[in-house]
Amino acid sequence: MATVSRPVLPLADGAVSIGSFADPVVVDPDPQLLAALVAAYRDASPAAVEPDLDALRAGARGTEDPLSSAADLPALTVLARESVVGALADRIRPASRLAALAEAEVWDLLTLADPQPNAVLAGRADGCVLVPAARARDGDGEEEAAAWCRIGTDATLRDRYEPLVADAESVRLRTPSRHRLYGAIRARCGAAVAAEAVRLLDAGDEPLGRGGARVRTYAAGARRGAIDRELRRACEDAGIGSAATFSRIKSDLVEAGLLGMESVSQPVGRPRTRLVARGALAAASSPAAVLAALRNAGVAVGGDA
Fold it and tell me: What is the C-alpha to C-alpha distance for residues 38 and 9, in angstroms, rounded to an integer?
């Protein structure tokens, strides 16, 4: 059973447990505060929010459900501006954490139309305004992690924002959680392809956008001999791109000498096309080497370029 602790938000005057608020809502967080809230939930239950490959495999086998730990997390309503969500959701890793919280119905992530005077954290019996604390700098002159000060105690704050919550629309996230991505690929292409995709998505330290994630996923399919049509359908199921989106990726990999195809006959119907890794993509012995092979061939594996 996955271990779950309480999500705790660090503040300048001491951490606050989000679960200590009844029916909590956060209103108008800035990108740093939104990221800190996601991190608090991830630290409380990594198996639900950002599972590693072992947890994903255990969930697929039915020996342990990583999402079961989400039931022990406090539900949170987050009312955030579109630009703030976009600051996190334009990269795969933070976006997948947001998606995990939304898919597990732990977070109700709603769109805030107009900015508010300050960020607010409020429950039915208590509430406070959150303002950024002065940020110290470390020895290299870089800003340390942001912290916030809790201002006031107001039991009416939650009620004041209830009309905004009631009228707000759910945020539509374009990136799936790791659970959804792994499950979709495993269901159509098998466990080996799904595991290879997760390894490649986790490789490297550079920011990873949707374009890079698509390339890495397709490269994983090639390295594990996935059926082209099934891989495309799996990516559609997961929500990382349409089948047509991968036509350009396939063309780029073929042109780079990294991808070939072979026909696989069927007892009934037309033959299917299997992806076959070629050259440096086939020879790579580690995820880092796979990324190097793609980069050396001029294929983008990071951002959306």
Answer: 10
**What tokens does 294 get?**
């793609």
**Long-range interactions of 129-135: CB distance < 8 A, separation 24+:** 129/157, 130/11, 130/29, 130/33, 132/30, 132/32, 133/11, 133/12
The candidate with the shortest Cα–Cα distance to 2, out of 87, 59, 40, is 59
Domains (range + CATH), the chain = 8-167 (no CATH), 178-297 (1.10.10)
pTM assigned to the model: 0.88
In this structure, are residues 48 and 73 in contact, taking their beta carbons and an 8 Å threshold? yes
Residue ranges of the chain with per-residue pLDDT less than 50: 1, 136-143, 305
Q: ∠ CA(216), CA(265), CA(233), 5° rounding?
A: 35
Determine if residue 59 is left, alpha or beta; phi over 0 gives left, psi from -120 to 50 gives alpha, anything else beta.
Answer: alpha
For 230-264, the pLDDT digits (tens) are 999 999 999 998 878 888 899 999 999 999 999 98
Taking only the tens place, the pLDDT of each residue in 127-150 is 999 998 865 444 444 445 568 899
- For residue 267, the model assigns a pLDDT of 77
